[in-house]
């Protein structure tokens, strides 16, 4: 793949969910919309997708609010909405909650997608099809 093809692939195929990292200067709606700006979808399509996913996660009433004004539960829903907005085929999730993991598992089953989780939470093992454990025997203080 060329560099441009790789960019297009990752923008339209892979989505990352890492914590509740939302832009505090943007509204909930604009936070959800972020992936669509990089993927080049049109305004009408973006609005349709945001409306649909906001309904699924019951966050329609907070779309115009800044993330600093909403609860942790709502921030989790907003991050999930942003992650799923582009209908990714591969989702990379770092330390998801069990609720988030269950939502993502339903999504990947319905969409025939792949979920890769990086976590230290032993409770998430029950959801895994395969587990890869990485142990570091050396402590390196340079990182």
Plain-language structure description:
This protein is mainly alpha-helical and 143 residues long. The chain has one domain: Rossmann fold. The chain contains 5 helices and 3 strands, in the order H-E-H-H-H-E-H-E. It has helices at 3-13, 28-39, 43-56, 72-84, 98-111; strands spanning 14-18, 90-94, 114-118. A 3-stranded parallel β-sheet has the order 1-2-3. Helix 5 (98-111) links the parallel strand 2 and strand 3. Helix 2 (28-39) packs parallel to helix 4 (72-84). The protein is globular, with a radius of gyration of 16 Å.
Strand order of the largest sheet: 1-2-3
CATH class: Alpha Beta
Question: Uncertain segments of ≥5 residues (pLDDT<50)?
Answer: none
Query: What's the main sheet like?
Result: 3 strands, parallel
Number of strands: 3
